[in-house]
Design a protein that fits this description.
The chain has 304 residues and is an alpha/beta fold. It has helices spanning 3-15, 20-31, 46-56, 72-76, 110-113, 117-122, 157-160, 174-182, 186-191, 199-210, 216-231, 241-257, 265-276, 290-300; strands at residues 36-39, 61-65, 77-82, 87-92, 99-103, 124-127, 130-133, 139-144, 165-167. It is built from 14 helices and nine strands.
Length: 304
C-alpha cells in the first residue's frame, strides 16, 4: 500500500475498528474525486468515519443534519439585507467546505436533497443568479438510514447517481466490539490524533491516482461490463457512461492504494459493488438486491 495512504488507513482503523474494507473504499472514493453515500443503521459509525477522514486529511469539515423541514437555503446559503451598508450580503451555507457531511440525507424532502445536485456535479452553486465556486477539494459524505425506517424519503435516481460509491459499514466483529467496549470513546481518541496529510499532498495524490495506467485490455473489460448491463434481461436499465467513468476512476484509486502503478481486473472487481450496487436494478422479484446483481455481473463477463 502507498505509505502515506497506509498511515491514514491504519490510523482510521484504530478509530473505526474492524472496518478495513469500508476505510479503503472511502479513501478510494476521495482519491477518485467522487462522493460517498454510507447506508446503514444508526449507531454503527457512519458519522465517525466521515469525521475521521476529514480530520486525518486536514480538511475543513462541516455537517448538516437533514430533517424534514430543511430548506435549500440552509444548505447553500442566503443573502441578507444589511441596514448599515444598504446592500444584500451573501452568507455562505455549510456546503462551502472541503468535506460536507450530509447526515441522514433521506430524512429531508426531495426539494432539500436537490440543493446538493449542482454542488456535487459542478463543484459550484448558483444562488440568486450568481455562480459561486466551492473549495478544493470538495467531498460530500452522505449517510442514510435504511428505507424501511420511519420518516425517510427515497433518494431519486438522479441524486443517487451523483454518488460515486455507496458502502455499508455493518456491525463490528465480536473481537472488534469487545475492544470497542473496553476502550475509550472514539471521539476522544480522534481528538488526540494528528493530521497526517496536507491539502497539497492530497491534491497531488488525486492527480497521481488519475494518472494510473490502464491498458486497452482493461478498458475492454470495463466496456464489456457496461455493455452486459445494457443488453441483459436481468437489469431494468444499463449502466450509464458516467458510471463507467466512475468505475474506472475508482479502480485507479484502488490500484494506487494497493501500491500498483497500473489497474488490473481485480481492482475493478474490488470497487464494483460500491460503484454499481446503487445504480443497478433487477427485473425479477429480487430487483433491489444489489449484492446479487453485482455478483451476476462479475460472473457473467469474462476477464480478458
Amino acid at each position: 500500500m502507498n505509505p502515506l495512504l497506509h498511515a491514514v488507513a491504519a490510523q482510521m482503523g484504530q478509530i473505526l475498528l474492524g472496518k478495513e474494507s469500508a476505510i479503503k473504499l472511502s479513501l478510494a472514493c476521495l482519491l477518485a474525486r467522487g462522493h460517498l453515500l454510507i447506508e446503514d443503521l444508526p449507531g454503527v459509525g457512519k458519522t465517525t468515519l466521515a469525521h475521521a477522514l476529514a480530520h486525518l486529511l486536514g480538511l475543513e469539515y462541516r455537517r448538516i443534519q437533514f430533517t424534514s423541514d430543511l430548506l435549500p437555503s440552509d444548505v447553500v446559503g442566503v443573502s441578507i439585507f444589511e441596514r448599515d451598508s444598504g446592500e444584500f450580503r451573501f452568507h455562505p451555507g455549510p456546503v462551502f467546505s472541503q468535506v460536507l457531511l450530509a447526515d441522514e440525507i433521506n430524512r429531508a424532502t426531495p426539494k432539500a436533497q436537490s440543493a446538493l445536485l449542482e454542488a456535487m456535479e459542478e463543484r459550484q452553486v448558483s444562488v440568486e443568479g450568481q455562480t459561486r465556486s466551492l473549495p478544493t477539494p470538495f467531498f460530500v459524505i452522505a449517510t442514510q438510514n435504511p428505507g424501511y425506517q420511519v420518516g425517510t424519503y427515497p433518494l431519486p435516481e438522479s441524486q443517487l447517481d451523483r454518488f460515486l460509491m455507496r458502502i455499508h459499514i455493518g456491525f463490528p466483529t465480536e473481537a472488534a466490539e469487545r475492544e470497542l467496549l473496553r476502550g475509550e470513546d472514539r471521539r476522544s481518541l480522534l481528538a488526540r490524533t494528528q493530521c497526517l496529510v496536507s491539502v497539497e499532498q492530497l491534491l497531488e495524490l488525486q492527480r497521481q491516482a488519475a494518472d494510473i495506467y490502464t491498458s486497452d485490455a482493461l478498458l475492454n473489460y470495463c466496456q464489456a461490463l457496461l455493455q452486459f448491463t445494457r443488453v441483459s434481461d436481468d437489469f431494468i436499465h444499463g449502466l450509464s457512461p458516467r458510471a463507467g467513468l466512475g468505475m474506472l476512476a475508482a479502480a485507479r484509486a484502488w490500484a494506487m492504494i494497493e501500491g500498483r502503478d497500473m489497474v488490473i481486473p481485480e481492482d475493478v472487481q474490488a470497487v464494483l459493488p460500491a460503484v454499481c450496487g446503487h445504480r443497478l436494478q433487477g427485473t425479477d422479484s429480487q430487483g433491489q438486491n444489489a449484492e446479487r446483481l453485482v455478483d451476476l455481473l462479475i460472473g457473467s463477463v469474462a476477464i480478458p
